[in-house]
Amino acid sequence: MGETTELSKVVNRIQKRYHEGLLDKAVSIFTPFPDKKPLSDLELSKDAIEFIKQYEPKAEENGLFFHQFDLLDAYSKGADNFILTSSTGSGKSLCFWTWIIDKLSMHPNSTAIVCFPTQALMWGQADRLARISTDKTYYNRKKENAFSGNINLNNKKIGWTIWKGVGSGWTKDKAMKEHEGTENFKRSRIRLATLDKAHWSLIPGHPDFTKNLECIVLDEAHQYDGLFGANVHYFLKRVYIAKESSKRRRPNVFLASATLSDAKSFASRLISYPENEIKHVTDLVNPQINTIPLTEVDELLKNPPKDGLLRINLFIDSLDKNYDLAELINNTNIVGDSLNLLYFSNSKYESRILKKKTNKSSGRTIEIYDGDLPPERRRHIEKLFNELKGSTLLATNALELGVDIENLELCLLNSIPPKRVDLIQRVGRVGRRAGLPGVTILKLSAAPLDRSIVENPENIFSFDTAVTIPLPIDLRLNKLKNMIAIHYEGCYKKYAAKNWPYYQNVFRKYFGEFLKHEEIKDIINRNYEGLIETQGNQWVHKGFRASASERKIPLRILGSDEDVAWIEDINIFRDGHPEAVYLDDKGSHWRVKYYDGDWKIAEWTHPESSFKLGKYLKSISVVFVEKEDSNITTRGSWDDFMEEYQIFPELPEDTLPPAGGILEYGIWEYTKKFDGYTEYNLDTKEKVRVTLKQVSDRFKALIDKGINAPFLFPLSYRTYGWSWEFEGVFDDDEKLKEMSPIIASILNAFFADAVQSKPTDIQTYLSLPNAKLTVLDTTPAGNGLSEALLKQNNVNIALKNCVKTLDFYQQPEMKRKFKNYIFELCEGEVMHEPEELNSIIKQLQSYWQG
């Protein structure tokens, strides 16, 4: 019998607390350490071997993991492009850094760019390089993060640098701006950047660096799916065109990724290299995923295997009783005061409210980590993570990637992320040390994915389920934007030296056609009017990620240069609305006083309406705030609506239309209007609704007195979607009107599950009396999900899964749980029986199948 550990004690107390809801089985994931091969057997340059010894000092004595050795051995024998898929913490970075160092040491003028999906990942890798670097540059007194340095190898110096946006106006990064003017930056041959920065700045602003570009690394490549993946795909094509226009060979590409079931085909589609020119290497160790009785968990925690990493997952079914794992974050009676635990919040707001609630009680240290934190604060907390003990980390999905914390032992998931690979990433945050297991507690809701976990908990952790959403590279507008970007980036003048025929040929090679700048813009303005704005010099680069947000807006303390947060512009409606009180990560309250920005009017009118759609929101550049003493916070509300704008004559390529009815694909118009807010008193728990009229009256009164006051104008944009007239015949119109919204909400959950997205990423509308189903992307210019739903039989799969689930709730013993299931799934009441709803969904499935 092994020694009782603190973790096993905590898990025993958790089991007692939630015994009614716990599934009687857990899932253990054991990842054995791979075998190793001697470093001396590797035939690489002296510089590359020296780098490995510096980067991983234990490698000289202990050797390399098999997958590390195999990849570098394949490279030494002529392979050029790679996708390396392996589990978290398996040494992928050693491989791509060695690949870069070897190539750059052989070609003295060559350069490399290493791209990450988040700044956290970028800074984490910079810190790793800084440990073995000389001539480092810092821009704060604490010297927490090096911006650049030199790697010394056999009397050679290879410089590297952070490369991030300098921003503008209120979010200008003076430190980065200063650094870009230094010789260290100019001489650096390796740049660490986010993909966004490379997309915006690499080709137009840095032709010498781009012409010499030998290596491109895309870390966490499994993140590049959907529209984001399509834009990464086209960004690479633009780099290839720039290189080949200057009559140089296109760079090689290295993808580092979590395990994917379709890795090689995914890589080929993403980087535009044929599969036979891509070497796929994966770790030879498959995680051992086993379902075990709950009674065996304690013994396994007391006697964990020593030759690998162990993670145990326990499941709480909240369908009958809505448990809340947030109650554990400061409960020392259950989680103790020595373990570190990680709680994944659904939102930044939830993190702040939880911290505020627990600040007054004694117990554990609580820190917050999310994307609203100003950059310096975020990096400071990253430094703290590995030093904390007996603490709780409240994090959004910003912590899924790029922050390695070895001493986290317990992870709490109050909700399951929609993408399997994201769930695997979250579970992988704990148990990162040999002999010291990690435990994740997962609360299961009514969502389709969660119910599948109840049926087969082991399956959700299988890496074969971590497939990617198809890249919507056939979106015509997306392709046209990237085609015109080449012209905007000056490829003809800067790279092709005004050799027009050669430039055209290279362009055709990667885009299949050549169109002049004016021709492309004319097509966009004629066929996609209003879907995107074509004003200004930077419009072609906007919308790189599928998000309604385009930039961060600082909440700045009035009369100072200090920011309490940087919020996404779209979130002003929710967090920075007129009269808002924002709760920051330290528990302080801040009242919005007024906005500042560029107040140019940008109105446009729908051809069939006199309603002007004012685009004032995007012109706000800063929100000024003052300290609020009362213990309140607010959440803004809004009205929104959609209307059909333009239908395309043809459906997108590779879509599977329904066998019956009429399917139309096109552009819809979205409008969002501020509609007041709700004020929450955190002392009394009372909430008060403040109407738009009340806000407007106070706004007018302040303006009459000459006082600056904030007010929001409507936000509007256009997006992609499809509508299906299914020609069905239903009776009882009044009842159908009542049932349409709830069925739409149910379908939206299953449609989102089919394309591994959040339910808020798409919007489903249903009118049974009019026999019409509509599904739209919820981001400006589209996110590709409504189109992805039409491919690979996803609509039919979603309908089939929905019918199967509602069939389950028609069983007599399950009917009593149905209302709670619908409330959990759709956050709304249901007045209908499962048979009624399922009958209609079955008919919809029948109409779709024909």
Textual characterization of the structure:
- With 850 residues, this protein is an alpha/beta fold.
- The chain folds into 5 domains: 6-32 and 286-462, P-loop containing nucleotide triphosphate hydrolases (Rossmann fold, 3-Layer(aba) Sandwich), CATH 3.40.50.300; 44-282, Rossmann fold, CATH 3.40.50.300; 476-539, no CATH class; 552-645 and 668-719, no CATH class; 726-849.
- The protein is 35% helix and 24% strand.
- The strands form 6 sheets. A 9-stranded mixed beta sheet has the order 6-7-8-9-5-10-11-4-12, with helices on both faces. Strands 13-1-14-19-18-15-17-16 form an 8-stranded mixed beta sheet, with helices on both faces.
- Helix 19 runs antiparallel to helix 22 and helix 27 (794-808) packs antiparallel against helix 29 (834-849).
Q: Total strand count, please?
A: 32
CATH homology-level superfamily of the largest domain: P-loop containing nucleotide triphosphate hydrolases
Question: Largest sheet at a glance?
Answer: 9 strands, mixed
Tell me the helix content: 25-40%
Query: Counting H and I runs of at least 4 residues, what is the number of helices?
Result: 29
Number of spatially distinct domains? 5
For the record, the CATH class of the largest domain is Alpha Beta
Low-confidence segments? 600-617
Give the CA-CA distance, first to last residue: 62 Å
Broad shape = globular
Which CATH architecture of the largest domain is right?
A: 3-Layer(aba) Sandwich
**Radius of gyration, rounded?**
27 Å
**Per DSSP, what share of the residues sits in E-state strands of 2 or more residues?**
15-25%
Mean pLDDT over the residues: 85
